[in-house]
From TrEMBL, chain A:
Source organism of the structure: Ureibacillus thermosphaericus
Gene Ontology biological process terms from the UniProt entry: peptide transport
Stretches assigned to coiled coil: none
One GO MF term attached to the UniProt entry: peptide transmembrane transporter activity
Transport recorded as keyword: yes
Membrane topology: Lipid-anchor
The name this protein goes by in its record: Oligopeptide transport system substrate-binding protein
UniProtKB/TrEMBL annotation, chain B:
TM segment ranges: 53-74, 125-149, 169-196, 233-253, 289-310
Annotated ranges, domain ABC transmembrane type-1: 121-311
UniProt name for this protein: Oligopeptide transport system permease protein
CDD domains: TM_PBP2
Family as reported in the entry's similarity comment: Belongs to the binding-protein-dependent transport system permease family. OppBC subfamily.
Record's subcellular location: Cell membrane
Predominant location category: membrane
Membrane protein topology class: Multi-pass membrane protein
From TrEMBL, chain C:
Every ABC transmembrane type-1 domain range: 97-294
Pfam families linked to this entry: BPD_transp_1 (PF00528), BPD_transp_1_N (PF19300)
SUPFAM superfamilies for this protein: MetI-like (SSF161098)
Membrane topology: Multi-pass membrane protein
Residues passing through the membrane, by range: 12-30, 97-121, 133-153, 173-193, 233-255, 275-301
Protein name: Oligopeptide transport system permease protein
Main localization, broad class: membrane
Family: Belongs to the binding-protein-dependent transport system permease family.
CDD domains according to UniProt: TM_PBP2
Keyword entries, A-Z: Cell membrane, Membrane, Transmembrane, Transmembrane helix, Transport
PROSITE patterns from the UniProt entry: ABC_TM1
GO biological process, one term: transmembrane transport
Localization terms from the record: Cell membrane
Length: 607, 324, 314
């Protein structure tokens, strides 16, 4: 017995002494973090997932990039021009940019043909690229994807010479530059791609780099190291020398502790333990809000209910076609109370009163959400108990004898998302208490955790549900897609009493009119009107923007390149390590400062 | 020898009347000999009662079960799903530490943990008990047929080899993905894999027992098969069946915790021990909030250990070999 | 003996075939949405259709099954779709298996080295403090949810000893805690099993006889009791060792060990059918091989067992 114990003890002691802590001397600036979602591929031409293009954004450069205020800057293209109606775009490329391999050896020069090869790959359906749908903006792109055309030279992308590239688009697209921020318009060295075939992007060896970093280590589900690319064309703006990612599936649980011990430089702080951090005077200084993104979350009222008879879809249909009923729900939703489930400390900061979030686009320094038709929604909270009860009375009077009360309101959530589950319970109780259980009966329903949207939202198996949408390019039309005909959200085209004289839904006509306008001022005004119509008629209840949560981080988010969509925001270029993390007060100050500077920069840029 | 030889020699000298007496047939005595007051269940119960620890745990488990059933009807109980609002702010009473109002505190959206824990225990125990019973019924039926019928032996053995070698995790996950997340789904997923072990145990025991002499005798007397299985074989298996059933309960609860961990458990709106522990796991690092993990863990531990010990001592007690 | 082995092998192949086919069909019941991932919202229905067709999911199901088996015969397990796109499944598994196997074997060894003697001592000192201590330990391990104490061990011990929290291949000190955590459960079950076995065995008549004959206690222990105890151990050991490669999902997640734990769960959730099928094939084969080796080992250890008589079902 004793022998065993001694033996064990000896083993432990030996192991303890065997490894002395060999602390590396730090001359270079290293950023370390843990992550729990592994990338499934490095093939940037194929992926559409944020964590995957987050890697690609630092390894490969596209034609353009943005500065930290969101103004377009030259990237691999030094300059560009467009024709009258913005349907043909010509780019002149930067000379002397090199493709290098994972050891930094030069392989080739980046030329216009690389962009043509990249697009060819994306639009070839057999490559299963999930960003091909963006690339179909290029003339004949969709036809090529669906196999109606087999000759790629008919697709609207041409290398006029080694350093000149021309895109011909399906129609006028004034916001085309912003689309270049997507991975599907990234270059690829054609010979290398052909040589690697299917294995392109499967390992650090099977990828070429022209961006600010080189992938020097890549072991999926273990670690990934990005090292500064010494041949990068803009290398003096790359301030962090090395980025080390360590995989940890339990990152949500262990990352905060790792940060406290100085083993990582950034950690997300889950909502559940926020209270603890805020009550601790030392830990409080380490955390701040994370920057919101441009995903828009809203509650959709479904005009095409297809759920089971036990939840009375016919009755819901009658009720939802009554404007007063819709408005009673619209004003009854206490969004702050709902928001507490994932942002308990600054719930108002994430609320979004329109579908299009703030700071998305602007006209002459005026934000889109402050345009005349939208301003009254932007500046007022939709939650108003008195109005809600007023509309309830009206709705009950009008629906008397037509609909049965209480109206059953089926509200599904994804059972894989605990915060959403909590939120659903909060909302159920809050709205039922306000409007009365004689009026509505909200049924919280746990949907499947995989394939949720395909099982619930797209087939219309909901009455009232939180949904979201992310922008694809810098134009308000990107936020109209869910609501136009063919959309798979709440089918507003089926709303009764909203058909225009030409037989089309009113909203559809408004959007088409806006899409046809080329002048920015007029275009934005028309889109704002269409969006205001959706909200005014209470087809939707705007809720919040994405990107919730708190982080402890040694990065200053306002150093980073900024754009509402695409890969730019994921770049480390321009960012530097702080000595200590920002606290939330500093974050708010920096944010105010940044917003001020941004307004100036935008005004300057539009002159 | 010498001692008795005299007597034997003298036997003939004595009259037969002196050697033997006629016995009078006595109804009462006949009854006594033919009747034994040995009762299987009473003996089992008696020897079980000798194990003090197991008895107290049994009382504890019964108390928990009873409490869980009547708890919602007791006075001053809160609803497990209602969200309580802080009277000062009007918003959810989040993460309130245990106090007079909320005996076990509240969770991150202001639900009362005391009632959630009992509701969760109710759900988890229900899952565990149903799974144990279903497994026992299917397992015993198939195990008995498999062991007793020679025709079914080969196909069932093959089926067993297949089912046994499909990793349990795969079946659990696939079932939870294909069906909706609900109590029924979890029960179905666990039963699909769970009965196999029971069937194998029963089968092995029956193979050992079926060719014993008393069964051979029974068969030659023309007793039908089902009667042999029910009357001759199954009583021998009671101890094994009881042990496996009582272990199935904590196992099913554990499996529910695992499924919740990999994100396929019950929806959060349906409290269960798995849910409560999984929610509390993140809070381990926060000393102030740790109570949210502590209470459900204790309940889970008590239930698990009780079933283990009760099961083992009951199995010992139910073994006829220990009755003499 | 040889005939028996051949028969067993043939049976195993049939079993494997059935298992894989069953899982193949089960996987086809999963919603198609899962294959599209995040892009589903943005693609038009036509584009989705093209995408799914290219994945081969639009072929008749029997054709899909046939293709799968043809590839398998050629030794091709296919390429991952959604876990690591286009990487051969074999490579993915090969990368990870090493870690899980190393930790698994070490943990089995540690559990036996610690657990079996613990059980023996507990039996010998039945009712005394060592027995109580051991029982307390076993009760703790059985009762407390493992995810709770794993996390406690990681956080507090690394803090106390000032160690890095995460696994690092180059620092052996970081291997210790995951290994110990991994062994806690098996130690308890070996100790429990061994103690029960010893207590039962020591009450048997032949031991009483041996004692009555005056055989030394030590000899009884080593020559009689323990020898018999190792027979069932020998039967289960091969399967136990082989199946350690499946890894421990929770420990590997906590310590960032790049092993197999969680691979199966991830692959199923991402609906990466080739990976799932390969894993099922691997796990089932190992299970079957393990049982087979166990039977052989038992026959070698236990002179009472002869091959070929009666079929073997455990």
């Amino acid at each position: 017995m004793k022998k065993y114990l001694l033996f064990l003890l000896a083993c432990i002691v030996m192991m303890l002494t065997a490894c002395s802590d060999d602390e590396e001397t730090k001359d270079e600036s290293v950023f370390r973090t843990v992550y729990s979602g592994e990338v499934k591929t490095l093939n940037y031409l194929k992926t559409s997932e944020t964590n995957e293009f987050a890697v690609a954004a630092n390894l490969v450069d596209g034609l353009i990039e943005y500065d930290k205020y969101g103004i377009v800057q030259p990237g691999l293209a030094e300059s560009w021009e467009t024709n009258e109606d913005a349907s043909v775009w010509t780019f002149r490329l930067r000379k002397g940019v090199k493709w290098v391999d994972h050891e930094g050896n030069e392989v080739a020069e980046v030329t216009a043909k690389d962009f043509v090869d990249g697009l060819h790959y994306v639009l070839d359906a057999k490559n299963e690229s999930s960003t091909a749908w963006i690339a179909t903006v290029v003339k004949n792109g969709n036809a090529f994807y669906e196999g109606e055309i087999t000759d790629f030279s008919q697709v609207g992308v041409k290398a006029l010479d080694e350093y000149t590239l021309e895109y011909t688009l399906e129609g006028p697209t004034p916001y085309f530059l912003s689309m270049l921020n997507y991975v599907c318009f990234f270059p690829v060295y054609g010979e290398f791609l052909a040589e690697k075939g299917d294995s392109f992007g499967t390992s650090k060896e099977n990828l070429l780099y022209n961006g600010s970093y080189i992938l020097t280590e890549f072991e999926p589900q273990n670690k990934r190291v990005l090292t500064k690319n010494p041949t990068y064309w803009d290398h003096e703006n790359v301030l962090i020398d090395k980025i080390e990612y360590k995989y940890n599936k339990e990152a949500a649980t262990v990352a905060p502790e790792l940060f406290l011990r100085g083993e990582v430089d950034e950690a997300a702080i889950p909502t559940a333990i926020l209270d603890d951090w805020f009550k601790d005077s030392e830990k409080k200084e380490l955390i701040r809000q994370s920057r919101s993104n441009f995903y828009s979350y809203f509650y959709a009222l479904n005009f095409n209910p297809q759920f089971d008879a036990e939840y009375e879809p016919e009755n819901w249909k009658i009720a939802v076609n009554n404007k007063n009923f819709r408005k009673s729900l619209f004003h009854a939703l206490d969004r702050v109370s709902a928001m507490l489930t994932d942002e308990p400390y600054n719930p108002e900061s994430l609320l979004n009163n329109t579908i299009t979030p703030k700071n998305f686009v602007d006209i002459d320094g005026v934000d889109y959400t402050q345009l005349e038709p939208l301003a009254k929604f932007t500046n007022n909270d939709s939650f108003n108990p008195d109005l809600a009860l007023e509309y309830k009375e009206k709705a009950m009077a009008e629906l008397q004898g037509k609909a049965t009360f209480p109206v059953k309101v089926l509200m599904p959530y994804n059972s894989g998302m605990p915060d959403w589950a909590n939120r659903s319970q909060v909302i159920e109780q809050q709205m039922e208490n306000l409007l009365g259980k004689d009026y509505i009966d909200i049924i919280v329903y746990a949907g499947p955790s995989t394939g949720f949207l395909g099982e619930v939202r797209r087939p219309g198996k909901f009455a009232f549900m939180e949904v979201n949408w992310g922008p694809d390019y810098a134009d308000p039309s990107t936020y109209t897609d869910p609501f136009t005909i063919g959309g798979t959200y709440n089918k507003p085209e089926l709303a009764e009493g909203y058909t225009d004289t030409n037989g089309q839904p009113i909203y559809e006509n408004m959007v088409n009119k806006a899409k046809a306008a080329i002048d920015f001022a007029e275009r934005y005004e028309l889109f704002a009107e269409a969006e205001a119509f959706l909200i005014e008629e209470a087809f939707v209840v705007p809720y919040k923007v994405g990107g919730t949560g708190y982080v402890a981080s040694k990065l200053n988010p306002f150093d980073a390149q900024y754009s509402p969509f695409g890969v730019t925001m994921e770049k480390f270029k321009g960012q530097k390590l702080l000595d200590k993390p920002m606290n939330n007060e500093e974050f708010k100050e920096a944010k105010a400062q940044w917003e001020k500077e941004r307004a100036e920069a935008l005004a300057k840029a539009s002159q | 020898m010498g001692l008795y030889s005299e007597e034997i020699r003298n036997i003939t000298d004595k009259s037969s009347k002196q050697l033997f007496e006629f016995a009078v047939a006595d109804e009462n005595n006949a009854e006594k000999i033919g009747y034994s007051n040995y009762s299987y269940w009473r003996s089992t119960w008696k020897s079980f009662l000798k194990n003090k620890v197991a008895v107290s745990l049994l009382i504890l488990v019964i108390a928990i079960v009873l409490f869980v059933l009547i708890q919602p009807y007791l006075p001053n109980q809160k609803s497990p799903t209602e969200i309580y609002l802080d009277p000062e702010t009007g918003y959810q009473a989040r993460n309130v530490p245990p106090n007079e109002e909320f005996w076990f505190g509240t969770n991150s959206i202001g639900q009362d943990l005391w009632s959630r824990i009992w509701a969760g225990t109710r759900t988890s125990l229900f899952i565990g008990v149903v799974v144990a019973i279903v497994e026992a019924i299917i397992g015993i039926t198939i195990g008995a047929l498999w062991g007793y019928s020679r025709k079914l032996e080969a196909p069932l053995t093959h089926a067993y080899n297949v089912i046994e070698n499909i990793p349990t995790t795969i079946v659990l996950i696939l079932m939870s993905l294909i069906l909706r997340p609900s109590i029924t789904t979890i029960i179905v997923a666990m039963c699909i894999t769970g009965w196999v072990e029971m069937a194998r145990f029963i089968r092995n025991q029956i193979v050992i027992l079926r060719d014993r002499e008393y069964n051979l005798a029974s068969r030659t007397l023309g007793t039908p098969s089902y009667r042999i299985i029910l009357k001759n074989l199954l009583p021998y298996l009671i101890s094994i069946i009881m042990l496996r059933m009582s272990l199935a309960v904590p196992y099913a609860i554990g499996a529910e915790v695992f499924l919740t961990y990999i994100g396929l458990g019950l929806p959060v709106s349906e409290p269960s021990l798995g849910n409560l522990i999984n929610e509390g796991r993140v809070l381990m690092m926060s000393p102030d909030l740790r109570y949210q993990l502590l209470f459900p863990s204790i309940v889970l531990s008590v239930i698990t250990i009780s079933f283990y010990i009760i099961g083992n001592s009951f199995a010992d007690a139910a073994d006829p070999k220990n009755h003499v | 003996m040889l005939g028996y082995i051949v028969k067993r092998l043939l049976q195993s192949v049939v079993t494997l075939f059935v298992i894989i086919t069953v899982v193949f069909f089960l996987l086809r019941l999963l919603p198609e949405e899962g294959y599209l991932g995040a892009a589903a919202d943005k693609m038009t229905p036509e584009q989705q259709e093209v995408y799914l067709t290219n994945l081969g999911l639009r072929d008749p199901i029997l054709v899909q099954l046939g293709n799968f088996y043809l590839d398998l015969l050629r030794g091709d397990l296919g390429k991952s779709i959604t876990y690591r796109t286009d990487v051969p499944v074999i490579d993915i598994i090969a990368d990870k298996i090493v870690y899980s196997f190393a930790f698994g074997v070490a943990a089995v060894a540690l559990s036996i080295i610690v657990g079996v003697p613990l059980g023996i001592f507990m039996a010998q000192f039945k009712g005394r403090w060592l027995d109580r201590l051991g029982t307390g330990y076993i009760v703790f391990i059985v009762a407390v949810p493992s995810m709770v104490y794993y996390l406690l061990i990681q956080v507090y011990i690394t803090d106390f000893l000032n160690l890095p929290m995460l696994f690092n291949e180059d620092k052996p000190i970081t291997w210790v805690l995951p290994l110990i955590s991994l062994s806690l459960g098996p130690i308890a079950s070996y100790a429990m099993w061994m103690r029960r076995y010893m207590v039962d065995e020591l009450n048997k008549d032949y031991i009483k006889l041996a004692r009555a004959k005056g055989v030394k206690e030590r000899t009884i222990m080593f020559r009689h009791v323990m020898r018999n105890a190792f027979i069932p151990l020998a039967q289960y050991l091969p399967a136990t060792i082989l199946l350690t490669i499946t890894g421990s999902i929770y420990i590997e997640s906590l310590y960032s060990i790049p092993g197999m734990g969680g691979l199966l769960v991830d692959a199923i959730q991402r609906q990466d059918n080739p990976v799932v099928q390969a894993l099922v094939l691997l796990f089932s084969s190992l299970g079957i091989i393990g049982l087979f080796l166990g039977d052989v080992a038992m026959a070698l250890v236990d002179p009472r067992i002869k091959f070929g008589k009666g079929e073997s079902v455990r």
